[in-house]
Every structure is written in C-alpha cells, then in structure tokens.
C-alpha cells in the first residue's frame, strides 16, 4: 500500500494508521449491520443462591454471530463498541432483549432477576434512565427484576456524571452491582458513596481459591466487607465444587460460573433450570 500525497505534497499518509482506521471503519459498519440483521445473540448465565441451591438470577452476556468469522466473544468487540459510542445502541438492544426474555419467563412462572452489564459510555448517556424506564414499562416488568452491573473503571472515567446516572437508575428501583470488584481503584470509596446493592467478586480471586490461600483470604474479606456494608455478595468464576462449597461456608450469597453452567442462549435457560440439581456438599471439614 503506497503512501499517498495530496496536491501540496505536504500530507503523507502513514500506511499502518491508514490501514487500521479503515479496519475500524469497516468494523463499525459491520457492527451496525449486525444490529440490522439480528446477528447479536443474547446469552445468559445462571446465578445460584448458595444457601438454597436455587437458580434465582441470570446475567445477560452478548455474543455476535458473524457471517464469515462465526462466533465472536464480547471481549473482541465491546471495547471497540465503547470507543466508538456504538455501545449505546448495543446496550439498548441488550436491555430490550433481556426485558423480552424476562417477561416470557414471568409468563411461564419463572421468576429470575436479570443482570445487564453497562459500560462507561452508558453511564454518560443522559437518556439511558428514561429509555430503560420505557423498555420496562412496555414489557410490564418491575424495575426490581433488573440489576445493572457496572465496573469500577467505568465509574472512574467521570465519577460525577456516573454517580448522577446511577442515582437516577437507583431511584427507579433497579438494583446496581459493582462488577469485577477488587480489580479497579478506590473500590472502598465507591462502596461508600454509590447507591449499590450488590458486589461481584472478580473471577481472578475465585478461580483458584481452593488452592491459593491468599485468594481465599481476599474472597473471605470481600464477603465480610460486602455484608458489613449491607450488600449482597456474588462470586463469579466458580469452576468446581470445592470452590462452591468454600463460598457457601464463607457465607457468600450467590455463585456464578462454569461449574454451574457456561453462558447459554437465553431461549435454552428455562429447560436448563428445570433440569438443574444443586450439588450435594460434603460434611464441613
Ligand atoms: P463480566 O461482566 O465480568 O462477565 C463475566 C464473564 O466471565 C463472562 O465472559 C463469563 O462467560 C465469564 N465466566 C463466567 N463464569 C466463568 C468461569 O467459571 N470461568 C471463566 N474462566 N469465566 C467465566 P464473557 O461472556 O466472555 O464476557 C466478557 C465481558 O464482556 C463481561 O465480563 C462484560 O464486561 C463484557 N460484556 C458481555 N456482554 C456485555 C454486554 O451486553 N454489554 C456490555 N457493556 N459488556 C458486556
Ligand atoms: Mg458482569
Ligand atoms: Mg464480572
Ligand atoms: Mg469479570
């Protein structure tokens, strides 16, 4: 790809930059096309109440089925969607789909709290609370059925505006959750000042906590911290029975992870719930 020159000869395109900005442009148009052609899929992953073993909530996780590249995980397009602002459209799509599923489940007698991830851009979107209220009203869903997950870094970006958006969402009656807790900065200051209901311990502390004593100590302290602040505590990244049992003994409220189930297409959830059998724990050591 040859460097181009403008009339004056003064402007020289640097090939790599040119190429990457072209790729960005085409990725953005592919994302837009994906919305138009229904190429996003709503996946959900169950959350289990540790005390009872019941499935009481799910987290919505988006996937992209690309016509040529196939199945694409969110890590490969969410950051780009955030940079370009496309995330606002995607978030609305996810909220709409999540509300649709929620009301279908309700109609069939399955009551589950639905968690949706928000990103930095969403927290700066002044229209979001009204748009969300409108979605809930159209689907006749009470705000208490929803939980919005926010990361510490998303709040960090513009704490003042983020707090305003969060306050508006919270007065609607929606639950708010701090996601990936422990990986960002100033976690404790946010816990004190934000209207939060739930804290999700990041999977990096949970994955190997049955082997790593330091991880186990961090998880235990985080559960206690959350409870002392009056919050519900959820552990993500539960991959085996030992971790599930440890969390239960530590008094953690809910668990989410591959040991229970990997994320699945939302339409499969009800059948999965009907087959779910909670683990039998061994006698406490
Ligand atoms: P997250 O919100 O922290 O979601 C949890 C991630 O951990 C999910 O990855 C889930 O599949 C994965 N996970 C759950 N249990 C286990 C486990 O036992 N072991 C391991 N190794 N991983 C587990 P996923 O679906 O690839 O999503 C990655 C991230 O992308 C999410 O992290 C979230 O930050 C973002 N994301 C996903 N969907 C959306 C969305 O609709 N909107 C926004 N803004 N972000 C989203
Ligand atoms: Mg999350
Ligand atoms: Mg998380
Ligand atoms: Mg995480």
UniProtKB/TrEMBL annotation:
Residues 24-277 form the EAL domain. It comes from the Bacteria. Coiled coil: none annotated. This is Phosphodiesterase. The chain holds residues 507 to 791 of 791 of the full protein.
């Amino acid at each position: 790809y040859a460097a181009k020159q403008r009339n004056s000869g003064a402007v020289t395109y640097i090939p790599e930059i040119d190429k990457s900005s072209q790729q960005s442009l085409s990725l953005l148009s592919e994302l837009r096309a994906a919305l138009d052609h229904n190429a996003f899929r709503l996946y959900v992953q169950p959350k289990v109440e540790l005390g009872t073993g019941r499935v009481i909530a799910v987290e919505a996780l988006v996937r992209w089925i690309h016509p040529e590249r196939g199945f694409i995980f969110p890590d490969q397009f969410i950051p780009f969607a955030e940079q370009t602002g496309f995330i606002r459209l995607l978030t609305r799509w996810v909220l709409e789909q999540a509300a649709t599923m929620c009301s279908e489940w309700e109609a069939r007698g399955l009551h589950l709290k639905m968690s949706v991830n928000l990103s930095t851009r969403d927290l700066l979107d002044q229209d979001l609370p009204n748009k969300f209220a409108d979605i809930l009203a159209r689907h006749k869903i009470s705000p208490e059925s929803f939980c919005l997950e926010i990361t510490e870094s998303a709040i960090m970006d513009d704490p003042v505006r983020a707090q305003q958006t969060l306050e508006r969402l919270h007065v609607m009656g929606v639950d708010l959750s701090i996601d990936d807790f422990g990986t960002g900065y100033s976690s404790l200051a946010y816990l004190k000042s934000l209207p939060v209901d739930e804290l999700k311990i990041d999977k990096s502390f949970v994955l190997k906590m049955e082997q790593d004593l330091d991880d186990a100590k961090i998880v235990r302290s985080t559960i206690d911290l959350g409870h002392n602040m009056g919050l519900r505590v959820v552990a993500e990244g539960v991959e085996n029975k030992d971790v599930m049992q440890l969390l239960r003994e530590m008094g953690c409220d809910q668990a989410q992870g591959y040991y229970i189930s990997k994320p699945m297409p939302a339409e499969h959830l009800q059948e999965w719930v009907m087959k779910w059998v909670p683990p039998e724990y061994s006698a406490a050591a």
